């Protein structure tokens, strides 16, 4: 009985296995048939081979925001075609060893190479081999798009086999060596030889041939002028491959490896490039979308960008000439970024002060590559923005400006003074440091870090000195423009980009969508904007104002490194915006020392640059004012009493903002009630009794003056406003962070005396624009200066 049961179970199991196997085989056959049909369809759609496309390099082209051609990605291109018989064998072998060692054996597709590429990259170093053959690369760079799809791979393999049937190996290698891009605007191996070594192709050494063979994989990263260490490491990999495959001997390899790359190079050629700073960012953005350098430089792409040629051209003229601003010397540098406030589209980039229309060596891009401490431009991002967002502070929020010590470090203001209870608006307007640090401490480093992250600024950790711009690692003008644009866009952040659309030679397109994300509440964006309007209208940003435009912005400067006893700054910033454009400007020197630092007058240049660029950018364009959202309420506060006022026109009444729904008692004092001793009935009785003596002593008149006299005695001495009874300043000095790591030094300012009134205009030498035209207010002081963190000189950075 037991045997029969076991037999039945075995039969059922075998039946299940058979059925499963049959179903699996049927599915595989069906998949093969379907896959075969798909492959056949892909092959049927393959474009035809064209000899001109195969031989002539396909340079990618850049178009502006109006879809007009601007320039080639490589700038002004240089190329020279050389027949294969004039290309030395060791040059050919360098490329074959690196790109396709079985080139002369396979028929277009190397099946072994596909599986061997992964192992080779691990064994010989990343990049030692790729999966595509030289034949496939010629096809891909000539008639196909660069998209990474099965369809493109099938078509590439199919055309590679076709190419091998129609052309000889030497003809295919000739096409390849004359098409590929080597960097520095050089297409083809002959042009590259002259560009990097200033010698004809026939005179190249083995070491020089190996250097060139290593460039096409990533010409920008391996550029020997920019990254000589990377280029040398890459060259040595090529030499190892040449030796491994028998193209050179051990002694030849050792001799070539011993030559430093820097000693091999000729002096960099001076090329003429158009809008160089902007084009550099286009290439970065393309790489961030997954495009390789081969695709970017050799793919024949049409790249539609956000470039505004009018603003770009004017930006370069402002930076590179003295027509608009008189610069102190030729070594003085600047970087600026102009973006669309609503979309994050980059309209212009000013990378440095070298003329763009002159033949010069490509320079460092201070708009995107520079990482400098931002000074007090950090305050809206790390201090007051998070405080309004999370604590719903009003712009009238009082903070106590008093001596402050954290972890043994004393913080101070730029004027070495403490001003008692000041409103948040006034603290930002005058760029006081103590209130900013207290705001940062009260909101907490975690919330401040998250707020900054929403604006595109990432920090591993935050210390109190970050509240006033004392960063361990700096920021670029483009990053700051992106962050500030969200304040002018109702709290929506768009990552700055140069790209709109990419078109491939086969007609396919990729549209770039730059979707925004909510970085803050609309009340935070508007209230910060309103406070920064005060900075421009009355405070440290006064000289950046533009007649007829609502401009919000913030200044920032950093202290000189230790050992420099001069009065000045390492860096000067101005970041400002309207509802149309956001512009960020940095000025300073590549290296700050006793002979190269920003004087009092130099520190105003960042604001002058902003004003000149924004004036032109906004010309003949309707710039809408900032609109107050329904989540914000306006209130009017009597600055003498700290109470609400119905009369908004009095000189001692200020307009403030609060988040709708928050309690008024948290913002202002309760209204004062009238006192009974001042009531008229009592005064009338006394008048009747003393009516006869009234002409002599006039007691009624004397009685009426008493309340005013008392009020005068109760008024606090300047500076106003009066304390609201709620100290929201120091909370014990606890930042909510570990006390172990000492914070970097704080932001301090040492402004010069206020300049004389400039009659409402602004000159290059004004510090903050002089008199505001309001008799009750003194001219605004100079901006802040930030101490660098430990080990950082706050302006001594070298470009990498």
TrEMBL record:
<dbReference type="GO" id="GO:0008955">
    <property type="term" value="F:peptidoglycan glycosyltransferase activity"/>
</dbReference>
<dbReference type="InterPro" id="IPR012338">
    <property type="entry name" value="Beta-lactam/transpept-like"/>
</dbReference>
<keyword id="KW-0328">Glycosyltransferase</keyword>
<feature type="domain" description="Penicillin-binding protein transpeptidase">
    <location>
        <begin position="336"/>
        <end position="614"/>
    </location>
</feature>
<dbReference type="Pfam" id="PF00912">
    <property type="entry name" value="Transgly"/>
</dbReference>
<feature type="compositionally biased region" description="Pro residues">
    <location>
        <begin position="739"/>
        <end position="757"/>
    </location>
</feature>
<dbReference type="GO" id="GO:0071555">
    <property type="term" value="P:cell wall organization"/>
</dbReference>
<dbReference type="InterPro" id="IPR023346">
    <property type="entry name" value="Lysozyme-like_dom_sf"/>
</dbReference>
<feature type="compositionally biased region" description="Pro residues">
    <location>
        <begin position="776"/>
        <end position="791"/>
    </location>
</feature>
<dbReference type="Pfam" id="PF00905">
    <property type="entry name" value="Transpeptidase"/>
</dbReference>
<dbReference type="InterPro" id="IPR050396">
    <property type="entry name" value="Glycosyltr_51/Transpeptidase"/>
</dbReference>
<keyword id="KW-0121">Carboxypeptidase</keyword>
<comment type="similarity">
    <text>In the C-terminal section; belongs to the transpeptidase family.</text>
</comment>
<keyword id="KW-0378">Hydrolase</keyword>
<dbReference type="GO" id="GO:0030288">
    <property type="term" value="C:outer membrane-bounded periplasmic space"/>
</dbReference>
<feature type="domain" description="Glycosyl transferase family 51">
    <location>
        <begin position="73"/>
        <end position="242"/>
    </location>
</feature>
<dbReference type="GO" id="GO:0009252">
    <property type="term" value="P:peptidoglycan biosynthetic process"/>
</dbReference>
<keyword id="KW-0961">Cell wall biogenesis/degradation</keyword>
<feature type="compositionally biased region" description="Acidic residues">
    <location>
        <begin position="721"/>
        <end position="734"/>
    </location>
</feature>
<keyword id="KW-0812">Transmembrane</keyword>
<keyword id="KW-0511">Multifunctional enzyme</keyword>
<keyword id="KW-0645">Protease</keyword>
<dbReference type="GO" id="GO:0008360">
    <property type="term" value="P:regulation of cell shape"/>
</dbReference>
<protein>
    <submittedName>
        <fullName>Uncharacterized protein</fullName>
    </submittedName>
</protein>
<feature type="region of interest" description="Disordered">
    <location>
        <begin position="665"/>
        <end position="800"/>
    </location>
</feature>
<keyword id="KW-0472">Membrane</keyword>
<comment type="similarity">
    <text>In the N-terminal section; belongs to the glycosyltransferase 51 family.</text>
</comment>
<dbReference type="GO" id="GO:0008658">
    <property type="term" value="F:penicillin binding"/>
</dbReference>
<keyword id="KW-0808">Transferase</keyword>
<feature type="transmembrane region" description="Helical">
    <location>
        <begin position="21"/>
        <end position="43"/>
    </location>
</feature>
<feature type="compositionally biased region" description="Basic and acidic residues">
    <location>
        <begin position="680"/>
        <end position="716"/>
    </location>
</feature>
<keyword id="KW-0133">Cell shape</keyword>
<dbReference type="GO" id="GO:0006508">
    <property type="term" value="P:proteolysis"/>
</dbReference>
<dbReference type="InterPro" id="IPR001264">
    <property type="entry name" value="Glyco_trans_51"/>
</dbReference>
<keyword id="KW-0573">Peptidoglycan synthesis</keyword>
<keyword id="KW-1133">Transmembrane helix</keyword>
<dbReference type="InterPro" id="IPR036950">
    <property type="entry name" value="PBP_transglycosylase"/>
</dbReference>
<dbReference type="InterPro" id="IPR001460">
    <property type="entry name" value="PCN-bd_Tpept"/>
</dbReference>
<dbReference type="GO" id="GO:0009002">
    <property type="term" value="F:serine-type D-Ala-D-Ala carboxypeptidase activity"/>
</dbReference>
